[in-house]
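Need residues for this backbone.
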């Protein structure tokens, strides 16, 4: 089958496009999917560099990619007709359209699924493949910091894929969102219902001006040294409730006593959340901006673009 493989850590050049990878066989309780679209995420190139082994240990040769949209291709023993069987699977039939995560890597024609949910027929393959990682991450962090209706959230990196999904989920829950982004993305954030502020020196003052009654929680989706600002906004060192600050981007989180959220929730929680978000996407109340689609063989280029940090939206690969 067609796939992208790498056999050592390194830059984009270690990614190799091949048609010689064996099609994976589903074991007991497993599901094989035919991949129709793949979402490209920063964690893909961070894994390629070997930077996130704590969360995603690598066995070479490795196929990159976490999230996909596709069709059920084969069912392992114990899956067919068994509602809730397997690791996060609902009752399935061959041919069902699904979205979710893979165990064996999504940059391939076929993969063994991890946690999956039904894909609404009205949702395009590209849009569906853009949901799992961003949607699960956004909801997990919002839950972790306990932000509630009537409170104000500061979201650093609000125009990114995860950030923009988190803005939409928070606004829908009655939360006021102050979001940092480059000025070129401020109009986009306003469309999503957030109050935009610019990056850079003086960020804390701009957030305070946008939220004169104060900030109750902070979601860092961008990194770049913002954690001291987050602590300051919640009252300063010694006063801030650091349980209400979380990051998915700052590698120095532990030094500040801040939670780094990098592990997915329980399968049933993840599946229920993805099912709901897919329905929201069909209804138009949750959107992921897609920057570009590329053929699978251009995976190295896609990861380069993702790593550049200049893409305005999600990159999607099409096997």
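Answer:
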């Amino acid at each position: 089958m067609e796939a992208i493989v790498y056999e050592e850590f390194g830059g984009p050049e270690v990614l190799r496009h091949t048609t010689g990878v064996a099609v994976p066989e589903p074991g007991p309780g497993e599901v094989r999917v035919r991949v129709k679209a793949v979402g490209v995420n920063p964690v893909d190139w961070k894994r390629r560099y070997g930077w996130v082994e704590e969360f995603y240990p690598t066995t070479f040769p490795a196929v990159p990619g976490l999230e996909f949209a596709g069709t059920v291709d084969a069912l392992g023993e114990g899956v067919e007709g068994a509602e809730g069987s397997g690791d996060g699977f609902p009752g399935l039939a061959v041919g069902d359209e699904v979205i979710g995560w893979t165990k064996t890597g999504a940059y391939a024609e076929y993969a063994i699924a991890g946690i999956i949910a039904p894909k609404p027929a009205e949702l395009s393959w590209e849009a569906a493949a853009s949901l799992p990682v961003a949607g699960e991450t956004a909801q997990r962090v919002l839950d972790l910091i306990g932000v509630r209706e009537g409170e104000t959230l500061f979201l650093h990196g609000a125009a990114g894929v995860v950030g923009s999904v988190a803005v939409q989920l928070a606004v829908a829950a009655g939360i006021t969102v102050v979001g940092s982004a480059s000025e070129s993305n401020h109009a986009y954030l306003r469309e999503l219902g957030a109050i935009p502020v610019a990056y850079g020196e003086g960020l804390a003052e701009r957030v305070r001006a946008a939220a004169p009654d104060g900030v109750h929680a902070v979601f860092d989706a961008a990194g770049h040294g913002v954690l001291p600002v987050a602590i300051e906004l919640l009252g300063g060192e010694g006063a801030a409730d650091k349980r209400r600050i979380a990051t998915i981007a700052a590698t120095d989180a532990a030094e500040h006593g801040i939670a780094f959220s990098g592990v997915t929730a329980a399968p049933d929680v993840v599946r229920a959340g993805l099912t709901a978000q897919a329905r929201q996407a069909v209804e138009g109340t949750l959107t992921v901006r897609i920057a570009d689609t590329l053929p699978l063989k251009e995976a190295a280029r896609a990861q380069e673009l993702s790593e550049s940090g200049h893409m305005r939206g999600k990159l999607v690969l099409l096997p």
